[in-house]
Each structure stands twice: as structure tokens, then as C-alpha cells.
Amino acid sequence: MMVRTDNRAANDVRPVKVQWHYLTKQPASVLWQRGTTKVLAAVTEQATKKVTLIGSGLTQVQSDWLQQTLTTLLAPALEKTGLLVSVTVLEDGGSLLAEASNAVFGALQLLPEQFLPNRAAAVTAILTGNETLVDASDTEEAVADSTLLVVTDNQEQILAMTLQGATAVNSSQLNELLLVASQGGTRTAEQIQASYQQAVHPIIQKEHSEMPTIVIATKNPGKAQEFHAMFEKEGIQIKTLLDYPELPEINETGQTFEENARLKADQIAAILQLPVLADDSGLMVDALDGRPGIYSARFAGDHNDAGNNAKLLYELTGVPAEKRTAHFHTTLVFAKPDRPNDDLVVEGSVNGRILGIPRGDNGFGYDPLFYVPELDKSMAELSMAEKNAISHRAKAIENLEPLWRDWLAK
Ligand SMILES: O=c1nc[nH]c2c1ncn2[C@H]1C[C@H](O)[C@@H](COP(=O)(O)OP(=O)(O)OP(=O)(O)O)O1
Ligand SMILES: [Mg+2]
């Protein structure tokens, strides 16, 4: 038995990480990661009733295959409207075309129009020597005799496929490839679905109509998950702006956290005519005189966690650990429709230190760089429950807790 690069079993697929709505100004985009393969995909409707694909980092043959496959899979929807697809490969860690396809399938789920009736997912299986391995990494791909790419639905049914390789395969080898690939594809479809439900619609799966609902004025899935976890135990379900894709963008033009949170809460409450809770939060670093502060989300230019973290590390180059003190701050504003003078405002914060290298995979934003001395862990090394026991957001919600019921009733 060949040992796989990451000790997986031959029929194991790698976990996926999907950042839904990755681009703020696109209606439907995802950053898709599997292993070290990273692909950014964005889709929008277009007037011409066909699929137009703009690929960067794919070969012409790969782009053509993807465009053709999408055209076939989406044929019913394409009778009504066309689709503009953009695919950017950020890193090729193997199974690139499969993961580019998955990124597009993921992004398609975010469009209001249903393009893909079945949950589609792509995966590769390779034949190397006499072994069949699913979801090949780049080093495994390099030794493959043949590579099969399949697109399946969530029932192990094959929707599309392509076989490549210098060596001929016989029908029993092809059967084996098809079997492991279709299972791997369906497993991938499940992974996509699980991530989608967690991040984009944490509420949908548990829709309890008798539960009171609060709208949180955020598009940040990381925040949304934390609010969901914290309010669920209070018997409250939350909706977020991701549930209202038609709402306009609210510009955070305020000079303080409170002003920005008020802007978000008041405007969304006025449009939805529902009570709305807004969070404006950020990181204040003492050695940077409190920066990035209210500009935390836009520190490196646009709303990009990786860029923001890189910039933070750069600005703190050479600053010793004891001088890297910082705190996270949250201001929450709860607003009722058309009554901005009655806004309820609370705050919370947590102290820590900025690490020299990122640690941990949980959370979002600056979490991998924010060290919590009491727990000897970075925020990104905490489980969500642990973070929600100590975070700035948790503190603010604690402060809101004794107030909001009376406030809402009056
Ligand atoms: O617990 C946290 N752990 C790590 N980083 C955090 C946290 N809380 C806020 N942050 C960072 C992320 C972002 O760079 C900025 C918030 O900016 P902020 O405008 O409040 O949120 P956002 O633009 O991501 O979403 P939205 O305005 O739709 O709520 O601070
Ligand atoms: Mg924001």
C-alpha cells in the first residue's frame, strides 16, 4: 500500500473549507480550499443565455471543459438567463479542476435563481500502479497513470466525467475509479452542504416559528455563527443580512464603533421594519496607538482577513511580546424601526496580545493572531463555546442581556 501524502485512506477525501460570500461586492462568491488548493469563484447572471467563463490559473483545456460542463448541467436554467462565471486559482495543491468546479458549484448556491437542481460536487480519482486513490494531492497526481474526474450529485449519480492519462485503463480499473470517485463526489457534496448550512444559514435548519426572531445587521458569517450560538440558548433565533440579499450596502462612514453600529442598525430596521441588532467591532493595538480600530475590516484596503493579518504582523515587526498588548472591542446597537432616539447601546472588550505567527484555525478575522494569556491560547485555538465565554462580543451580549427584553417591550 502506498502511503498517501497526508496518511489518508485511499478512499478518503480531504476536508473542505469554504468562505461563503467571500467578496463583499459580488452577489455570489466563495473562497474554496481543499488541502492547499485554493480557488476563488464568483457568479452573476447575464443577459446572454449562455455560460461565459473567465478563468485565471486554469489551462485553456480546463476552462473549456468547465464551461462545457456547466453549460450541460445548467441547461434548463440557461433557457431563462445566462451566467457569468469567474474562477481565480490562488494555489494548486492537486485536483485543481475538480476544486475549481466545486468553487463554482458553491457560488451557484448563493444566487437567488436555482441553477443547479441537484447538489453537485466534483472529485478526482487516480490510478497509480495498481492503486486507486480519491481526491489526489499534487504529489499524488504527479505519479498518476490515469486520472478520472467526475461530477456527481448527492446520491452517487454521475453527472459528468473526463478521463485522462498516458496509460490505457481496462474496464475493471475504470469501474474501480468510477466507484471511489462517485463516493468521494457525494461525500464532497455533503461537505459543501454542511458548510453552507453552518455558515450561511445557521438558522434555516432549525426554523422554530414560535421562537422570537432578531435580525443581526451583519454579513460576516463568523459573527453570525457566534450570535447564533449565543442567542440559541436564550430561545431566540437570528436572521442576518445574508438572509436578505436584496438589501443595499450600508457604508460604515462613522468615526466611532457606536456611530457605525447605529448606521447599520437604524437603516436596516427602517427598511425591514423589524428590530435589528448591529455589531461594529475591531481590534485596538496599543503599539499602533489603537489602530486598526474602526478600520479593522478595511485595514489592508478591502475586507480581507489574510491581508489584514499580514499587514498587522508587518506593522508590528520588531515589537517585543510584552509591548504587543491589544484588545478587541464590540459595540452593539439594538434599534427599533423608525425610533433612532431609543437605540439601546452596549459594549464589551477582551484583552490580549498580538502573536508573531498565526495560531489555530477556528474563528475569523484577527483570531489567529490574538493571544489570550489567561487561556494560553490564541482566539483561533478556542472552540466556539470557549470563545463565546470570553470574547468582546460575548461580554457585550452579557451587558445586553438584562436590558433588551424590557427595551423591546416598551
Ligand atoms: O471576534 C473577532 N475575532 C477576530 N476578528 C474580529 C472579531 N470581531 C471583529 N473582528 C475584526 C474582523 C473585521 O476585520 C473587523 C470587524 O469589522 P466590522 O465592520 O465590525 O464587521 P464586518 O465588516 O466583518 O461585518 P459587518 O459590518 O457586516 O457586521 O474586526
Ligand atoms: Mg463592516
Automatic annotation (TrEMBL):
Pfam short name (any one):
Ham1p_like
Against SUPFAM superfamilies, the record matches this protein to: ITPase-like, Ribonuclease PH domain 2-like, Ribosomal protein S5 domain 2-like
Quaternary structure? Homodimer.
Tell me the cofactors it needs. Mg(2+)
Query: Protein name, please?
Result: dITP/XTP pyrophosphatase
Q: Which UniProt keywords apply?
A: Hydrolase, Magnesium, Metal-binding, Nucleotide metabolism, Nucleotide-binding, Nucleotidyltransferase, Transferase
Q: Which ranges carry the Exoribonuclease phosphorolytic domain?
A: 120-183
Reaction(s) catalyzed by this protein? XTP + H2O = XMP + diphosphate + H(+); ITP + H2O = IMP + diphosphate + H(+); dITP + H2O = dIMP + diphosphate + H(+)
